[in-house]
Amino acid sequence: MEMKMKDLLQATSFRFNKALGQNFISDTNLLKGIVADSGVTEDDVVVEIGTGAGTLTKQIASVAKKVYSFEVDKNLEPVHALSLQGVDNVEVIFRDVLKMKDNELQDIIGTGDFKVVANLPYYITTPLIMRFLESELPVTSLTIMVQEEVGLRLVAKPNTADYSAVTLAVLLRGGATITRKVGRNMFYPAPNVDSAVVRIDIDRTKLEGENKNLIHKIVRSAFAMRRKTLVNNLNATFGISKQEATERLNKAGLDEKVRGEALSLEDYVRLSHEF
Ligand code: SAM
User: Which residue puts its alpha carbon closest to atom 20 of ligand 1?
Assistant: First the structure.
């Protein structure tokens, strides 16, 4: 008979490491829901970040071709020996993906397309999204559990408090949707925030020919000091005079009093042509 997660952790005397953001999921319906949201099928290679007790890993493995699951806490090894017993399409790698180069990752997972599915520690959410978005890796989507407020930021519209540099970083390369909200009590131990599952679909052909690094630099500049006008932020980042910044904004059809949070992706693309 299959062991319950709590019994499994007890049987292996596993001790939670709070600093690693260890909040595990055991609810089968939720685990299946996350996998369904990801759209993973038997043709897919999946990279999971944060194996934990292996509950999500096992659920992904039941539909995917192959799962490469990355974890940093070696103390989970005995837990995996039980939870992933007999699951033959999973490889657990005890390494930090954030510290690996693309080619090091591809030495393990191969060079084909892959999807990311993860319930990861919240402090690495943005670095992880950026690590995959900005790479040349053939990743087609990221389905990740995030803090609810981060989820709202990822799908925010211009002129709202949630609209941020990360919203546009995603829009530059694809699009994000919140697929479900998840209450804090679905985790063990329960964190002190609610969560949401976000799916980011990546389209490498989006804005082809545009200088995405430059656009991203302008975006980061625009949100560096949120309450300042774009002219002031551009002046600080690019070392151009306020008059010069005003002229470039006007050429792009934008008012000099505008703040970064009012600009759409298209506005940023147009503005980048003036740099
Ligand atoms: N996926 C499991 C689940 O849904 O129950 C575990 C989720 S738990 C929120 C996050 C896991 O990520 C923990 O097991 C933690 O040890 C691991 N972790 C923390 N930092 C990591 C990193 N940089 N790379 C990979 N895993 C990491």
Answer: 20
